[in-house]
Amino acid sequence: MRDWIIKLDQFIQLSEREILTHAGKITAEAARAMAEQEYEKYRRTLVAQPSPVEVHFDEAVKKAKQLAQSKKTGKKPDEGN
């Protein structure tokens, strides 16, 4: 087992990373709280974006308005652009 530890340390050093010699400075609870806080930020950005259904609905409404307008003016929908 000791040989594998040495090999792993050599691999880590080869990738120019520092080998930890201690358990770290942050508790598991603090790390979990930080991760949950960051996930909440991410979740809020997702909620703020329109869903694919909303995007398609908005596109359909826009096309319907263009068709209605083209019927009023007598032009085809592509002619007015």
Structural class: mainly alpha
Radius of gyration: 29 Å
Give the oligomer, counting copies of the same chain as homo and different chains as hetero: single chain
Strand content is: under 5%
Shape: elongated
The helix-strand sequence is HHH
Q: Give a short account of the largest sheet.
A: none
Distance between the termini: 72 Å
Q: Unreliable segments (pLDDT under 50, ≥5 consecutive)?
A: none
Number of helices: 3
Mean pLDDT across residues: 88
Total number of strands: 0
Q: What level of helicity do the residues show?
A: 55-70%
Give a quick set of tags describing it.
81 residues; mainly alpha; 0% strand
Task: Describe this structure as you would to a colleague.
This protein is mainly α. Helix content is 69%, strand content 0%. The protein is built from 3 helices and no strands. The protein has helices at residues 2-14, 28-48, 52-73. The longest helix has 22 residues, at 52-73. It is elongated, with a radius of gyration of 29 Å. The N and C termini lie far apart (72 Å).
Describe what is shown at a glance:
The protein has 81 residues and is mainly alpha-helical. The chain contains three helices and no strands.
